[in-house]
Design brief:
Elements lengths: L1 H13 L2 H20 L1 H23 L2 H11 L6 E2 L6 E2 L4 E4 L1 H6 L4 H7 L7 E4 H8 L19 H4 L3 H5 L4 E10 L4 E12 L19 E5 L10 E5 L1 H11 L3 H5 L8 H5 L3 E3 L4 H20 L28 E5 L16 H5 L1 H4 L14 H10 L8 H23 L2 E3 L6 H4 L2 H5 L18 H18 L4 E6 L6 H12 L5 H6 L2 H10 L1 H19 L11 E10 L5 E9 L10 H14 L26 E4 L2 E4 L12 E3 L10 H22 L8 H7 L4 H9 L6 E3 L14 H7 L3 E5 L3 H12 L6 H13 L5 H13 L3 E3 H8 L5 E3 L3 E4 L8 E3 L3 H6 L12 H6 L10 H7 E4 L29 E2 L6 E4 L5 E4 L8 H12 L5 H6 L3 H7 L1 H8 L7 H13 L21 E3 L8 H4 L7 H4 L9 H9 L3 H16 L16 H17 L14 E2 L2 H6 L3 E2 H5 L15 H7 L1
Parallel strand pairs: 7-10, 22-27, 29-30
Antiparallel strand pairs: 1-2, 3-4, 5-6, 5-28, 6-20, 7-8, 9-10, 11-23, 12-14, 12-19, 13-14, 13-21, 15-16, 17-18, 24-26, 25-26
């Protein structure tokens, strides 16, 4: 009864509002206390993790579920602003907090106010900032560290591109081009940073213009150039108002910039008619001729939509209506010497006043930030002012120049491994110059990810993957379709215009408007493309993904850039349990065809996605695929394709099927008829011909038709089932196409030969024509008398002055987004003999801390680490050590091999958490096991070419050893190999796949053969160099890397001469008094011989240590100087006497120079024979 009454009473009380409020408060308090308990938190974390894992598993086992999740993810963009760094991030990178939540984590209110620069009720923090803040550290990229932008005043906001140029103390001359139909931007050649002096356009702007007055102005790099760097109509009043504001800023005051009234008077003689100009007429005529030529051969079928030219950048030769007919043409920087963008510490602020408002960026003194980190921060900033094209390319070039500067310095520290060198010797510049340096003036370009040297390295890594994993299964290509992706247009509108639109509105937006948004923000385009691909790869790797049971186990992916400036990726995919082609096994062929039909289609009537998407797969001929073969125009992709009744793998005729001459002539004739018919029907994509009807059209049966296809084959090739109206459709995977919704291509890789001939070459090709250009320059250098340093300079300049890059590619470089990714990292094992290995000398800073006699002067390499492995690992071979273990200086989980790592492009970093870190013998690192093998690369000596080194390499890699001299050098290699053959071959099979020999043979054949389908074919037409694509032009735009590094660019031969200096008379008298009688007699004898005649003297001064040889030489040298300086009319600056020695140490003792420095002798830095002295040196010594 009591319980019943109590329950009834509580029920009545709950109906009372006051009681309900109090009860809710008590519950909330109890809930809050419970949430603070660590056990409760751990339980909740476990439950959430389990719930998320279950959701992932559910999606992984259901393609429709994964597709729905993917479609939600691709709607996300970098639209969330971090309150600390101000960067734009994707939702998955952001965590939300309130001030109360942060204070509950032990952070002080003052600290929170400091790090949360952007004040909002909800604090959003990116991953990097959050990690630092939770450790009570101010993140380096926090806006409060001096990275926040100043508010742009109205007088600067309204400036056009050229108007801004007129008020710059620095003008960055660049050749910026318009690319493709979308008119994205590209940069050609180098950047030249030209300072504007006080008597140039910045300091002579007039005051006497009305508010509405305008002038047409051509800004020239040099007055002799045909094209202007920029030109447009400018408003002098606007320019004058802006410069008035800027000259009041401290930065401009430091530059001494003033305003003058004499501008018009000074430049009046350079007025010209802009509208009626001979050059413009010629340009228009050339443009029309170009168009007529295109129409004449009827090849270009691309119906590029027109693009509104009125972009934020100023187009060269745009006709400007409603303006005055007379304008000004001037070149304010013509006689000014370019200065280094690396040495010019305020160059960013002086070059971009609309970004920095004429004020210097003030980074807090205790904050360590590199320019690369600042650049990333600026590009990701919610304030998009640094996304403008000129600033983007400027930043890219500055970073690229810094990379080359560092690479040259590092390369000059590399030397052939020399024993018994001490720290003191390595700190002696003359001694170091006498060593044999690394003489590869090409591979140092690897520092730049767009260089041929970088992609040659990647090609080796791909080949190593194939050698270790076997032939890949599929070759996949995925392109971007920015104007077709409505999700991207929604994101761009939000980021650039702060406006939220629907997908339907984005879809209905005009093509011109879409292009304008894409042009304005290449940064967001790149980040979205990478996000979209990341989401796609998650599905491709799932068990129920598009590969339908064939698990994706490994991949290599390369990002490259199309002519229009957008990225697309090529990928080699290794699928588990995929069939392998064996031409001698009919069962294998059937399995391959079944596999191909399951994953690859060319159907024009897809069921998995809307039919209109097929148009993205339909090829249209353009300039980039146009190719001349035997006076005929052909498509380099071989389109139109041959229609086929079913998928087939066709092989060339065997020796048993040898054709007669008559049969070949008949086949050739029939083939031409078929090709003509294909060209005809390919123009009608709606034709309803069946395969059988097509055969009737060409008067053939299927057997004859197959014969004409096989007659041209040199290797087996896949021909897909294809109707006559599908002969222009590129192969696709229906499930991938339904997700990606952009152009793609997918091919089954038949054999190692096909992989070598097409896939590896295509996936690792570098910029068109660049490798040949650099190789020619290098070969030319080898013929001359050039030091290593000079070679590096020439090659770097050749690359920097010849390279081209699109805006989106520049973003990849600035943000350090990988251009190649792999499911496995790669490690190089230098299996050369010890004397042929290149070693890196430690930096001077490290060398100075060593004992003078220390021989630990080289950076520790992989082989040094292996020798110093712990005792527990004595039975581990070198291949296993490199592939299965990581080495770190500290005992942490994030350990990795310190040599050959730096791989930002590696997907896996799998460390076995259960393994114990072992300390190295020399105490210089810790070793921990991995869960996934690395790919190993090595010298790979060939048995038939170099048997001794082949056997030595096998022993070095696949058998354990401890002392290289004892275990590997001074032994009979072949005999030791034969004794351990079974062990070696068993271990070798783990790293060298059974298909490796076949692949390497195919690759060697490919290297000897010119691939007629190579994209670098000289018969392919390109339209990238036409004047109509120019945005900024300025004639010669070549820079010099040594200028950027602050190195004197005079010829080294002349740089090395020291002007003779006489010591004071008192010192000379003391020196002569210190000589003994024999030394004085010898000195007087030499002086008499010099005074009496011009005969050559060859004297040999000999004696033991400490007898005074150096003192005597100094006395003779100073006596000769005094004699010549006393002669009437003699120029004291002329070199008549030089003291030299063959070694740096000997030269230092007599205050002289080495022979190699004085005479510019290349012997120790060049592999070539000694050549005659340069004429300049001969003249100097005459």
């Amino acid at each position: 009864m009591d319980n019943r009454r109590r329950a009834k009473s509580q029920k009545i009380s709950r109906q009372n509002d006051e009681f309900e409020t109090e009860d809710n408060k008590r519950r909330a308090e109890a809930h809050k206390i419970k949430h603070e308990e660590e056990k409760y938190k751990e339980d909740e974390r476990r439950k959430n993790a389990l719930r998320m894992q279950n959701n992932r598993d559910k999606y992984k086992n259901n393609f429709d579920g994964m597709k729905s999740n993917y479609e939600l993810k691709i709607k996300e963009g970098p639209t969330h602003i971090c309150s600390c760094c101000g960067g734009l991030w994707f939702e998955y990178s952001i965590r939300e907090f309130t001030i109360e939540m942060l204070t509950n984590k032990g952070l002080k209110k003052e600290f929170i106010d400091t790090v949360c620069y952007l004040k909002n009720t909800i604090i959003k923090l990116c991953v990097t900032c959050r990690n630092d803040i939770m450790l009570n550290k101010v993140p380096n990229l926090c806006l409060s560290n001096g990275l926040a932008f100043y508010e742009v005043p109205d007088c600067l906001k309204i400036l056009t591109e050229l108007e801004e140029r007129l008020i710059l103390p620095r003008i960055p001359f660049m050749v910026i081009r318009s690319l493709g139909s979308c008119k994205q931007f590209g940069l050609k050649s180098n950047l030249v940073n030209v300072p504007m002096n006080a008597d140039t356009n910045v300091s002579v702007l007039p005051r006497s213009f009305s508010d509405t007055h305008t002038i047409q102005l051509k800004l020239m790099r040099q007055m002799k150039n045909k094209n202007a760097f920029m030109y447009e109509t400018i408003r002098p009043k606007v320019v004058h108002t802006a410069v008035k504001y800027l000259v009041e800023q401290e930065l401009y005051k430091d530059e001494g910039i003033v305003i003058s009234h004499d501008w018009l008077k000074e430049y009046s003689n350079e007025r010209e008619n802009f509208i009626i100009d001979d050059e413009d007429k010629k340009f228009d005529e050339n443009e029309n001729i170009s168009k007529d030529f295109d129409d004449e051969d009827k090849w270009n079928e691309c119906d590029d939509k027109p693009v509104n030219p009125s972009t934020t950048e100023t187009l060269l030769n745009d006709e400007i209506g409603d303006q005055n007919d007379i304008g000004i043409k001037f070149a304010p920087g013509e006689n000014n010497r370019p200065i280094s963008i690396l040495m010019d510490l305020k160059v960013d602020e002086l070059t971009f006043p609309k970004i920095y408002c004429g004020k210097q960026r003030k980074i807090k003194a205790n904050v360590k930030l590199t320019y690369a980190k600042i650049a990333k921060s600026e590009l990701r900033m919610f304030d998009r002012r640094c996304g403008r094209i000129s600033k983007l390319f400027f930043t890219y070039k500055k970073l690229q120049t810094r990379k080359f500067s560092d690479a040259i310095s590092i390369n000059l520290r590399k030397t052939k491994n020399t024993k018994n060198i001490t720290a003191t010797q390595m700190l002696n510049r003359d001694y170091v110059n006498g060593l044999i340096h690394n003489d590869d003036a090409f591979t140092f370009l690897r520092c730049d990810r767009s260089s041929p040297a970088f992609w040659e390295l990647k090609k080796k890594e791909v080949m190593a993957m194939i050698r270790q994993l076997g032939c890949p299964t599929l070759f996949l290509t995925l392109s971007a379709a920015e104007t077709k992706w409505s999700e991207l247009i929604v994101i761009l509108t939000q980021v650039l215009e702060n406006k939220v639109i629907t997908l339907e509105e984005a879809e209905n937006m005009s093509y011109e408007k879409k292009c304008d948004l894409i042009r304005q923000d290449p940064v967001t385009c790149v980040r979205y493309f990478e996000h979209r691909l990341k989401c796609l790869w998650e599905i491709l790797s799932a068990p129920c993904g598009p590969f339908q049971g064939y698990e994706l186990v490994d991949k290599y992916v390369r990002t490259e850039f199309q002519v229009r400036g957008s990225p697309h990726v090529h990928a080699l995919l290794w699928l588990k349990n995929a069939p392998k082609y064996d031409e001698n096994n009919p069962e294998s062929i059937e399995r391959c065809i079944e596999f191909i039909d399951k994953l690859i289609s060319v159907s024009s009537k897809p069921t998995e996605f809307p039919e209109e998407l097929i148009n993205l797969q339909r090829h249209k001929h353009s300039h980039t695929c146009k190719k001349y073969v035997k006076d005929c125009i052909k498509c380099r992709f071989g389109i139109p394709y041959f229609p086929m009744r079913k998928t087939m793998i066709l092989e060339p005729f065997s020796d048993d099927e040898k054709l007669t001459k008559k049969e070949r002539e008949e086949i050739s004739k029939n083939r031409q008829n078929v090709i003509k018919e294909l060209d005809k029907i390919s123009k009608d994509q709606d034709n309803s011909l069946t395969f059988e009807e097509f055969l009737k059209h060409v008067n053939m049966n299927e057997e004859e038709y197959i014969k004409i296809i096989r007659a041209e084959l040199k290797k087996p090739k896949v021909f897909l089932k294809r109707a006559p109206n599908e002969i222009r459709i590129n192969a696709y995977n229906p499930m991938i196409m339904s997700l990606h919704k952009a152009n793609m291509d997918i091919q089954f890789i038949l054999d190692p030969y096909a992989c070598s001939m097409y896939c590896v070459d295509y996936i690792s090709k570098s910029e068109n024509g660049m490798p040949k250009l650099l190789r020619e320059a290098l070969n030319e250098l080898k013929k001359g008398n050039n030091t290593v340093r000079e070679r590096l300079r020439v090659i770097a300049n050749k690359f920097l002055n010849s390279s081209e890059i699109s805006a989106q590619e520049a973003v990849y470089h600035i943000l350090s987004i990988p251009l190649s990714t792999s499911s496995r990292s790669t490690v190089f094992i230098n299996t050369n003999r010890p004397e042929n290995r290149i070693s890196m000398v430690k930096s001077d800073e490290v060398l100075q801390k060593l004992e003078p006699d220390s021989k630990d002067v080289f950076v520790q390499g992989l082989i040094d680490m292996y020798i110093n492995r712990p005792e527990e690992m004595k039975n581990i071979c070198l291949a296993d050590f490199a592939s299965l273990y990581n080495v770190s200086k500290k005992q942490t989980n994030n350990v990795q091999i310190t040599e050959n790592s730096g791989d930002e492009d590696v997907i896996d970093n799998e460390i076995d958490e259960k393994s114990v870190a072992l300390k190295m013998k020399n105490g210089k690192g810790w070793i921990k096991k991995r869960t996934k093998k690395k790919i190993i690369r090595f010298r790979n000596f060939k048995l038939h070419q170099d048997p001794e080194n082949y056997y030595r390499e096998q022993l070095m890699l696949f058998l354990p050893w401890s002392n290289e001299e004892k275990d590997l050098i001074h032994i009979n290699h072949e005999e030791t190999f034969e004794l351990n053959k079974d062990l070696i071959q068993q271990k070798r099979s783990e790293y060298v796949h059974r298909e490796a020999n076949e692949f390497e043979q195919a690759f060697e054949e490919n290297m000897e053969r010119e691939d007629e389908n190579d994209i670098n074919d000289t018969n392919i037409e390109y339209d990238q160099d036409k004047n109509e694509f120019l945005i900024y032009e300025m004639g010669n735009n070549e820079g010099d890397i040594f200028v950027e590094m602050g190195i004197n660019t005079r010829t080294e031969k002349i740089e090395h001469f020291n002007v003779p200096k006489m010591i004071p008379d008192a010192d000379y008298q003391r020196l002569m008094r210190s000589l003994n009688s024999s030394q004085r007699k010898y000195t007087l004898n030499v002086m008499n011989l010099i005074k009496d005649g011009d005969k050559q003297l060859f004297h040999f001064i000999n004696g033991g240590a400490g007898v005074g040889k150096s003192t005597l030489i100094k006395a003779v040298y100073q006596s000769i100087l005094r004699f010549y300086n006393s002669l009437p009319g003699f120029n004291p600056e002329t070199i008549r006497t030089a003291i030299c020695a063959p070694t740096g140490k000997a030269a230092a003792l007599i205050d002289g120079m080495t022979l190699h420095s004085f005479l510019s002798l290349p012997v120790n830095q060049c592999k070539h024979k000694l050549v005659k002295l340069d004429s300049d040196i001969q003249i100097e010594l005459a």
